[in-house]
Design goal:
The chain is of the alpha/beta class. Helices cover about 45% and strands about 15% of the residues.
Length: about 240
């Protein structure tokens, strides 16, 4: 393993819904948790939410696992959150920062956190949202604040200073952790680590590239040229 990976302070969570893939990834000591969401589950062809969730909990009982509510009404979100939390001690409950109507989920974040449920507040983009979420979390209860840094970057905003501002906001919460969500490239792991983020979620495709960290760039260049050459040869291109 490259020394840069060994020196990482940030926790890497595997993001996905492929049960066999999750099992393989969690055998890697770099992986410290698991997250998923309804979109990833649908893409993976999951039919039963509860059955899938309990299977993953049994698969990796020692790692924190985040499962998301999918209701749109706040009262039903809260009921689903309580049910999900009952599935295991290592379960974190994902609550979106708002519903589809744009209603802030602060009231249920406050009541669930006060009840001792470990929340993962998701789909956060703005600094103001981080302020509002922080105001509704209990100081004594662990919580994860998931800021979608990759999507922030998609809009042309540099996510690094953005995430540093978020860290400053949550400093008064001793048990809250900032999560860099939706990374776009492997470099984001090191950016998130340097910024001081506590967690980053990484999909299977990016995690497969971890072996590239520290790779000799001259050799990587030669391999790329060889790929172009072999593909042109295989296609019998002529000029």
């Amino acid at each position: 393993m490259d020394q840069r990976l060994k020196n990482l302070k940030i926790k890497i969570y595997a993001d996905g819904a492929d049960e066999s893939g999750i099992a393989k990834l969690c055998a890697n000591p770099l992986i410290r948790g698991v997250t998923t969401n309804p979109t990833l589950m649908r893409k993976a062809g999951i039919k039963s939410y509860t059955q899938f969730a309990k299977s993953i909990i049994n698969l990796v009982p020692e790692l924190p696992i985040s499962f998301e509510v999918f209701a749109d009404e706040l009262s039903e979100m809260e009921r689903q959150a309580q049910e999900i939390a009952s599935w295991g001690k290592n379960v974190n409950v994902k609550i979106p920062v708002m519903n589809t109507k744009g209603e802030f989920t602060g009231p249920i974040i406050k009541s669930l956190s006060k009840a001792g449920i470990v929340l993962n507040i998701t789909a956060i983009m703005t600094i103001d949202q981080v302020h509002r979420v922080a105001d509704n979390l209990a100081n004594s209860v662990p919580a994860v604040i998931s800021v979608f840094a990759g999507r922030v970057a998609d809009t042309g905003v540099d996510p690094v200073p953005h995430m540093k501002k978020c860290l400053e906001i949550i400093k008064p919460l001793p048990r809250a952790e900032l999560l860099w969500a939706s990374p776009r490239e492997l470099l984001n792991i090191f950016q998130a680590d340097d910024a001081g983020c506590h967690i980053i979620t990484v999909g299977h495709d990016l995690l497969a590239k971890l072996s590239l960290v520290g790779k000799d760039l001259h050799e990587y260049s030669r391999e790329t040229v060889q790929m172009f050459y072999e593909d042109a040869l295989a296609s019998a291109y002529q000029i």
